[in-house]
Q: What sequence folds into this?
């Protein structure tokens, strides 16, 4: 029975970053991971998908280069080679992570951990004790009870789709959220005929309702069936009902089930330990504390904001609380608590989309009066030079009507994922329109369009 | 219980059969000659006049309630009016055989009884005394209101005074008999022997029994009558009252000179209905109510059925029964049959009885038949009776005009109501007689034993004194009881196993040798009647100390604690005092139904004082305080504390008399970083927690013992919070609804700017108390307090919680209701 300062259950983004931060401060950390360090993000999520998407973008750009004076012949892609590159990236990043943890003195145990209670975790037959425990067991894809979905070799989730041996001729994507849209973008760029079936009236439900159509229309090669509900899957045929009640079919070669993810709350002793949780996730406060003393929960497991960078931030909040003995939050006069008002998101498809803060619809729902401005990205010289004058792209900014405080920044178009951190900074710092007007953006850049949109507000 | 009464198996196991004597039904035979000799013609006519007064009075109220007007006067009476039209003969007949010294306690339907008692008393009392009573009552306010109305002398004035005082009370006027705070269902006028009426069905039964005990124990003249209805025979407390009244010990164990059983007459006004439920045939099984007497004692409680539709029949039987009671051979049960023509209340549409039945009884109208009897026997003429009726109507009209006039008859304001919730009096003794003892107190074995005990828990070197040499918490209670017993001759104590056993927790050990039976006795296992009789004893003018062996048994006496003891001082507008101390013991080790701390329930109901000492010094000083006061006190003790010695007061527990100032918490230990405030035995675990906090974490901790629930002064606590800025409250009561949440909320209101963290409340888990072997899962431990401080108030450097006291877990538990 060894004792540590902190035991972390789960080696995904939340878990491994917490371990790094604690290790850097000289704490004795035990990190328990039953599968691979890096979790979903590094192994079967963020990294592999963005790697493949980059390859697909290179292929597309090569095909479309003539407009810009670059002609290439014999353009082809090699899926196996793409997968090999993806595998190399994942492996090298995984090894770098393992090395980082080792250098910081973190003990990594490959085992299925189990929370016994406050201060005690069992792993590999041994009980380990620590005054603080961080739970970071992540989430898994949801397989809904649609008849014909389970145990159907033609139906895969995101993890399964990343391992396919060849690009499907016809692909049906059930679920028009971020994951579904990215895969649709990827495979349509590689020549698949892609049909996306989405239950709601628009793709990527949390996007601003003016921005989502811009993204959708820019994905010309993909067929979107909106407001359609899948009723059953027969082999590789997806049977769904359209909005007006008619039955329709998508006869394809492969079906991607991308209807969402759920927190992993089973198999590690959550119930028996007295932890407070529901199917939505483990209950936490703004300091990431659960109801059990000394036990924290971060990342997808909390059900709040299923994004790797949210997991990073939650991990840092928990670490601050542990290191300061509970004084990092308001109780100790600090501000280091988890906030959700400026969490950026990005869709890395073709084109990219990103956003942070409130949408116009959320503001209306909350009864907040806002002023808004939206501009096509064509206002940016660089955007036109690189994409042509007819390309789709849009920026939208929302600010509080009375105070001018920036509430939301939304972009569809190139480099959106790289510029959105700036939008998060504006919102987190509660800058007003007048303050943003005093900032300098580089020129020429696509992100200048944000500044232009702000100048439209006042 | 007393060794003198042997239970012999050869006797009780003998075969045989039980014979039950027959019970007389309606045996009255008219004898005008005797009746004339007894009452005189004016007396007989006066009874008729009383019945007419009641009839007109009730009819007037019925008219106001159903039509908003009467005899040209418009008035909206918002409150209740449970009328007794048709029942006049029963109340008037009863009072014809009673004196002002005889007390009657009534029900929600007692206007007739109040009027009958007052009117009959005002014919018996001497005129000078009568006038003095009226002039002195409420500083003359009631009299002043009707002074200007014409009257034919003091007795006629007294009739007007009675009608007005009762009506003004029903109309919630300041000049009413209880300043409007009693109203229709609680009105009374003690100078004439009309004692409180009760809105709770059967509520008067045990209170009247207590009043009868007061008369018996203090050798006061008169009997006590409980006028309750037939449907009240379904109520537990009524059975408990009869059982308590019929205890063998009054005749087998009590000193002969006390006079025997308490003089209580349970006179059931049997009108054959509860609210709508019909007792004979639907809701009860006795068929004839008088039968119940046979279930109580071999005399069948001298039970008789009497015709309550004939006042002379009732007068005759009451006179006979009164004699039996004064001879100490009670209790008595009467089944006085009567019938109400009016509904249960004016909104009653009589859907539960037939028109035919009502008409049958209307055909037997007692006023008509008694009037006819008088005329037949030439005690009065028809015109004379009509003149009486006319004069009653005229007087009533004048009285109603005054009573409905808002300017002539204002109502009390909020500050008055607030002022009568407690009497806050201090009375050394309620009588002048010499307190009775069986021995010189210096001879008492316990007094002698205590003389040699260490009155402090630690000796001169600071070493703990051995338990067998220690003056304990239970000894402190004993000394307080003994002091008041020796000062106040009216003080009496009763409960289960009080005598002989000396109380289940040895608080009363030694008192059996000192006190005669009538000052300390064992009762039936009747928690309701134990407390109810205490209420009756106290409001009759004596000091009562009643005991509930376990706090958990308060449920058995719920009505008596929450509706009776708590409310009579205020419902009487301060005319009644309630010098009643109810000792309850918070249990330990006996599981779920024997371990609860219900301070929260007592705190919630206005009109009760409550306190909970945690040390022997406080036990004596606070019981002394309670025993000199005039308010009802629920005195909590703890079975965890009976054997503790005094650890805080320098010099230990004084031998002489002293009181703890009411409502003042005590600082047990000073500190500057954190305040822990406790109620009850949790104090000692809090001190242990304070030691951990100080020694291990350097948190200087102040510990405050609240010791009072109501009244409670906040100054000491606020001063502590001003200094430390942090407060955790702890007691063994279940956390949810704990009284400490009230304290926490008030402190937050009063000291918000001084607080650095939310106020935390630590209580027992919201579960049943498990077995003694598992009690640390349930009751607050010192670790709970330390962990609560760490999780919710002040993170302790290097501390790891071992118990779950987080705010999120509190949220989880409240979600599940546990």
A:
């Amino acid at each position: 029975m060894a004792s540590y300062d902190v035991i972390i259950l789960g080696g995904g983004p939340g878990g491994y970053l917490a371990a790094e931060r604690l290790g850097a401060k000289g704490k004795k950390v035990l990190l328990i991971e039953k599968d691979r360090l890096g979790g979903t993000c590094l192994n079967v999520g963020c990294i592999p998908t963005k790697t493949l998407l980059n390859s697909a973008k290179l292929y597309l750009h090569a095909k479309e280069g003539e407009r810009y004076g670059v002609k290439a012949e014999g353009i082809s892609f090699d899926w196996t080679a793409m997968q090999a590159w993806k595998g190399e990236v994942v492996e090298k990043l995984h090894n770098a992570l393992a090395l980082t943890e080792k250098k910081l003195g973190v003990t990594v145990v490959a085992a299925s951990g189990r929370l016994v209670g406050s201060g005690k975790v069992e792993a590999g037959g041994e009980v380990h004790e620590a005054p603080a425990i961080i739970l970071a067991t992540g989430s898994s894809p949801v397989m809904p009870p649609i008849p014909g979905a389970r145990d159907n070799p033609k139906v895969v989730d995101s993890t399964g789709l990343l391992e396919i041996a060849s690009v499907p001729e016809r692909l049906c994507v059930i679920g028009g959220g971020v994951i579904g849209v990215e895969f649709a973008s990827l495979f349509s760029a590689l020549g698949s005929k892609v049909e996306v079936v989405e239950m709601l009236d628009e793709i990527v439900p949390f996007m601003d309702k003016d921005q989502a159509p811009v993204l959708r229309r820019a994905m010309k090669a993909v067929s979107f069936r909106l407001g359609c509900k899948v009723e059953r899957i027969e082999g590789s045929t997806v049977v769904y009902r359209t909005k007006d009640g008619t039955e329709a079919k998508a006869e394809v070669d492969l079906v991607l089930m991308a209807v969402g993810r759920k927190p992993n709350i089973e198999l590690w002793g959550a119930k028996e330990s007295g932890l407070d949780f529901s199917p939505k996730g483990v209950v936490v406060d703004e300091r990431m504390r659960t109801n059990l003393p000394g036990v924290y929960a971060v990342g997808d497991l909390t059900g709040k904001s299923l994004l790797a960078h949210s997991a990073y931030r939650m991990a840092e909040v928990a670490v601050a609380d542990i290191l300061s003995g509970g004084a990092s939050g308001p109780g100790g006069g600090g501000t280091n608590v988890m906030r959700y008002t400026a969490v950026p998101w990005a869709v890395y498809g073709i084109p990219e989309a990103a956003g942070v803060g409130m949408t116009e619809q959320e503001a209306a729902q909350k009864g907040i009066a806002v002023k808004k401005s939206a501009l096509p990205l064509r206002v940016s010289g660089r955007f036109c030079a690189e994409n042509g004058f007819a390309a789709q792209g849009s920026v939208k900014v929302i600010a509080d009507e009375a105070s001018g405080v920036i509430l939301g920044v939304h972009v569809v178009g190139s480099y959106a994922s790289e510029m959105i951190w700036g939008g998060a900074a504006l919102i987190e710092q509660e800058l007003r329109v007048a303050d943003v007007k005093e900032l300098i953006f580089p020129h020429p850049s696509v992100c200048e369009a944000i500044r232009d949109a702000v100048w439209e507000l006042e | 219980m007393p060794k003198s009464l042997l239970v012999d198996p050869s006797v009780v196991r003998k075969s045989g059969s039980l014979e039950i004597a027959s019970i007389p039904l309606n045996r009255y035979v008219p004898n005008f000659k005797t009746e004339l000799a007894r009452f005189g013609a004016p007396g007989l006519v006066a009874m008729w006049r009383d019945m007419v007064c009641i009839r007109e009075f009730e009819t007037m109220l019925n008219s106001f309630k159903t039509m908003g007007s009467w005899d040209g006067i418009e008035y909206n009476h918002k409150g209740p009016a449970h009328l007794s039209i048709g029942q006049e003969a029963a109340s008037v007949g009863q009072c014809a055989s009673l004196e002002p010294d005889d007390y009657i306690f009534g029900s929600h339907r007692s206007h007739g009884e109040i009027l009958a008692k007052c009117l009959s008393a005002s014919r018996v009392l001497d005129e000078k005394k009568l006038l003095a009573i009226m002039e002195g009552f409420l500083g003359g306010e009631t009299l002043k209101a009707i002074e200007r109305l014409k009257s034919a002398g003091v007795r006629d004035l007294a009739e007007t005074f009675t009608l007005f005082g009762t009506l003004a009370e029903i109309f919630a006027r300041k000049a009413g008999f209880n300043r409007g705070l009693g109203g229709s269902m609680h009105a009374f006028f003690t100078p004439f022997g009309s004692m409180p009426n009760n809105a709770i069905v059967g509520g008067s039964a045990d209170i009247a029994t207590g009043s009868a005990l007061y008369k018996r124990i203090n050798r006061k003249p008169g009997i006590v009558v409980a006028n309750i209805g037939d449907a009240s025979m379904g109520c537990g407390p009524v059975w408990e009252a009869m059982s308590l009244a019929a205890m063998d010990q009054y005749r087998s164990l009590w000193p002969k000179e006390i006079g025997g059983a308490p003089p209580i007459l349970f006179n059931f006004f049997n009108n054959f209905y509860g609210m709508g439920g019909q007792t004979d045939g639907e809701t009860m099984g006795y068929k004839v109510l008088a039968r119940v007497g046979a279930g109580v004692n071999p005399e069948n409680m001298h039970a008789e059925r009497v015709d309550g539709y004939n006042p002379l029949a009732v007068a005759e039987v009451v006179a006979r029964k009164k004699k039996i009671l004064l001879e100490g051979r009670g209790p008595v049960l009467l089944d006085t049959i009567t019938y109400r023509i009016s509904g249960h209340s004016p909104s009653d549409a009589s859907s539960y009885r037939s028109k035919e039945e009502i008409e049958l009884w209307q055909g037997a109208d007692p006023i008509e038949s008694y009037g006819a009897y008088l005329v037949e026997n030439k005690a009065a003429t028809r015109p004379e009776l009509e003149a009486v009726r006319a004069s009653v109507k005229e007087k009533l009209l004048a009285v109603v005009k005054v009573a409905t006039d808002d300017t002539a008859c204002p109502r009390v304001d909020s500050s008055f109501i607030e002022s009568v919730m407690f009497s806050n009096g201090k009375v050394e003794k309620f009588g002048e007689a010499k307190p009775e003892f069986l021995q010189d107190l210096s001879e008492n074995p316990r007094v002698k034993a205590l003389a040699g005990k260490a009155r402090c828990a630690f000796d001169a070197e600071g070493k703990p004194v051995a338990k067998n040499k220690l003056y304990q918490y239970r000894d402190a209670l004993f000394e307080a009881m003994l002091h008041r017993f020796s000062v106040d001759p009216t003080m009496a104590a009763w409960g289960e196993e009080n005598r002989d056993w000396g109380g289940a927790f040895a608080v009363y050990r030694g008192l059996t040798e000192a006190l005669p039976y009538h000052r300390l006795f064992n009762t039936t296992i009747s928690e309701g009647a134990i407390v109810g009789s205490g209420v009756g004893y106290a409001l009759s003018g004596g000091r009562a100390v009643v005991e509930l062996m376990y706090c958990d048994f308060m449920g058995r006496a719920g009505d008596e604690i929450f509706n009776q003891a708590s409310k009579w001082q205020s419902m009487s507008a301060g005319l009644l005092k309630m010098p009643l101390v109810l000792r309850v013991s918070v249990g330990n080790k006996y599981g779920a139904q024997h371990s609860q701390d219900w301070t929260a329930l007592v705190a919630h109901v206005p009109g009760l004082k409550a306190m909970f000492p945690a040390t022997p010094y406080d036990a004596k000083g606070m019981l002394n305080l309670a025993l000199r006061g005039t308010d009802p006190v629920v005195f909590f003790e703890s079975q965890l504390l009976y054997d503790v010695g005094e650890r805080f007061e320098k010099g230990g527990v004084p031998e002489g008399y002293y009181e703890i100032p009411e409502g003042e918490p005590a600082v047990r230990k000073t500190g500057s970083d954190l305040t822990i405030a406790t109620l009850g035995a949790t104090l000692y675990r809090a001190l242990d927690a304070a030691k951990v906090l100080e020694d291990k974490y350097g948190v200087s901790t102040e510990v405050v013992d609240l010791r009072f629930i109501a009244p409670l002064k906040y100054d000491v606590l606020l001063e502590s919070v001003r200094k430390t800025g942090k407060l955790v409250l702890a007691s063994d009561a279940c956390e949810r609804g704990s009284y400490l949440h009230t304290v926490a909320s008030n402190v937050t209101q009063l000291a918000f700017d001084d607080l650095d963290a939310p106020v935390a409340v630590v209580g027992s888990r919201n579960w049943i108390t498990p077995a003694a072997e598992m009690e640390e899962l349930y009751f607050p431990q010192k670790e709970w307090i330390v962990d609560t401080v760490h999780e919710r108030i002040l993170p302790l450097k290097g501390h790891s919680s071992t118990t779950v006291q987080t705010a999120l877990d509190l949220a989880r538990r409240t979600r599940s209701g546990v």
Remarks:
- The CA atoms of residues 276 and 283 of chain A lie 6 Å apart.
- Residues 6-141+262-332 of chain A form a domain with the FAD/NAD(P)-binding domain fold (CATH 3.50.50.60).
